[in-house]
Amino acid sequence: MGSGLDGGNKPGHRFGTMLPEWLEKILILQDRDTRKARIETQIRHIPKEVSVCEEKIAQLESNLELARRLVQDLEVKRKGLESEIAAEENHLNRYRNQQLQVKKNDEYKALTHEIEGVEAKISNLEEAEIQVLLDLDEEKENLEKKDSEFKEEVAYQQNLIKKLGEREINLKKDLAEAEAEVEKARSESSEKYLKPYDRLAKTLKPPVVVPLRNQKCGGCHLKVSSGVDSEVRAKGENITCDNCGRLLYWEA
Ligand SMILES: [Zn+2]
């Protein structure tokens, strides 16, 4: 049966067969309508693609902000510890001065006790400060890394947005061209054939004008009745698939 060339949707092949003129014109219109719809879909998707990029940028900004705040918090903590240490050192000096002036042994001992307490406090604070400084180093390094990653990624996303804008402009040009081609095809078809085509195109998924092969509709791929099959083979006009309602034609 099949020559091996059959089954393709290539216009060259399809239009190479002997089709009635009206049908060829409707098929040309269908091709152009399909192209137009495809361009419209692509244009419709662009704002979504742009907002995906914008969301990524916002996410990067908030990640970076988080890393920056971590560093700031640690710096505040460090300053706090430094002034606590300074205050304790003042205490320490005061106690030491007092100790030089006391005469009684028990007063001297009491001050020694105070001094030891303050020294322990300072040592704890200094240990905490060292930990903060280590954390600070780590977080600063992290921030620097994030900052350069951020710049790279933001530039990438911004470039994508720019490209999407250019794509939109080109697609709109293509759409205008496709619309003009659709109009041209419509003007070359008669109302008699446009009406049923438009009616089907409004409710069914394209293509709505499809070939019949091996008694199967090229749209829904279901078997049509033998009555429909013979009418299509006889090249009748306006014969529709009894399953999906698409307009059927015979290619051979
Ligand atoms: Zn069908």
Fold topology:
Elements: H1 11-16, H2 21-101, H3 105-188, H4 191-203, E1 209-213, E2 216-217, H5 226-233, E3 247-249
Parallel strand pairs: 1-3
Antiparallel strand pairs: 1-2
Helix pairs in contact: 2-3
This protein binds zinc ion.
Residues 217, 219-220, 222, 241, 243-244, 246 line the site of zinc ion (ZN).
Would you summarize the structure shown here?
With 252 residues, the protein is mostly helical.
Can you offer a commentary on this structure?
α2 (21-101) packs antiparallel against α3 (105-188). A hairpin with a 2-residue loop joins β1 (209-213) and β2 (216-217). Strands 2-1-3 form a 3-stranded mixed sheet. The relative contact order is 0.13. The model is unreliable at 1-13 (pLDDT under 50). The chain has 2 domains: 32-189, Helix Hairpins, CATH 1.10.287.1490; 190-252, no CATH class. Helices cover 76% and strands 4% of the residues. The longest helix has 84 residues, at 105-188. By secondary structure, the chain is mainly alpha-helical. It contains 5 helices and 3 strands, in the order ααααββαβ. Residues 217, 219-220, 222, 241, 243-244, 246 line the site of zinc ion.
Estimate the global geometry from the Cα principal axes: rod-shaped
**Uncertain parts:** 1-13
Spatial strand sequence of the major β-sheet: 2-1-3
Structural class: mainly alpha
What gyration radius follows from the Cα positions, in whole Å? Answer: 41 Å
Mean pLDDT: 92
| Helical content class | over 70%
